[in-house]
Design brief:
homotrimer; alpha/beta; 35% helix; globular
């Protein structure tokens, strides 16, 4: 029986993305992959930290393999001339990162902003 | 029938205020003004970003017209020698921004810190 | 009868620790010590702000006297070559700060990230 924790980790700034990724790793290590669902939501300059040609892909790949969900904000992509193809395949898009964060908290997800 | 989302957007740093304002705009655009209540809470140097003589008033004016609530922390004003008159008319004050954030989350509001 | 507010204040960056401490003070001043439980959770470089030889100990001492709980992330200590003895006696450790933040929110605690 799992406690069913659900965690939103908010990547809002480029410089905080490494801490956000480390958070996801530590959360899985502490609770176990079966006990917590992790969704990383990037918007604003946070999306730059998830780019396929950036410094964080090795860490992202490992976390995606363990089940972490990655999503980026379509509004933030548009204003930075980025497209879905700039990100690893497992990174999804949501129309508005802010809506994702608000709606999921209303559904009971915990929220952490590294 | 509205889903009744309620969102606290926390303006804690001066440099993050533009992202906070953009969040409010994107949230309204995505969910519609009738579906979400937005309250922007500024404290610490975040209050500087709401000043009437600052760079963000055009964006704030538009959001206030669409129904966004703006409040600043009275403790933060006092320690910066600011008064209510330094802000646009639609900006309210709360005795303690931190209390506002804690109490409203206990009432079910979602919280985002840009 | 107390409302039983419970507040997590997240110290994630060294530079934000003074604001986090000021938040705790303002929250107690506004609601009263009997009405709110405050738990300050430091991880990443936030833990540096709680060190016994740092600039924040006078403020921390006062808050600990008033009942604020202080905890630091053991993962963050390990990666910075810090041990429990680098912190004031009243500072506790948790195995993973991120897990603390996720689990307590699931239990109804409010979350603020200064």
């Amino acid at each position: 029986m799992t406690p069913g924790y659900r965690a939103l980790i908010h990547a809002s700034e480029y410089d905080r993305v490494p801490v956000a990724l480390s958070n996801a790793e530590n959360l899985f290590n502490e609770l176990g992959e079966e006990a917590v669902e992790i969704r990383m939501v990037a918007y604003a300059d946070g999306v730059l930290g998830f780019c396929a040609d950036g410094p964080n892909t090795a860490s992202m790949d490992r976390l995606a393999d363990r089940g972490v969900q990655f999503v980026v904000c379509a509004n933030s992509l548009r204003s930075r001339n980025l497209v879905k193809e700039n990100f690893p395949d497992y990174v999804g898009t949501v129309p508005a990162g802010i809506a994702e964060l608000v709606i999921r908290q209303a559904e009971g997800w915990s929220y952490v902003r590294p």
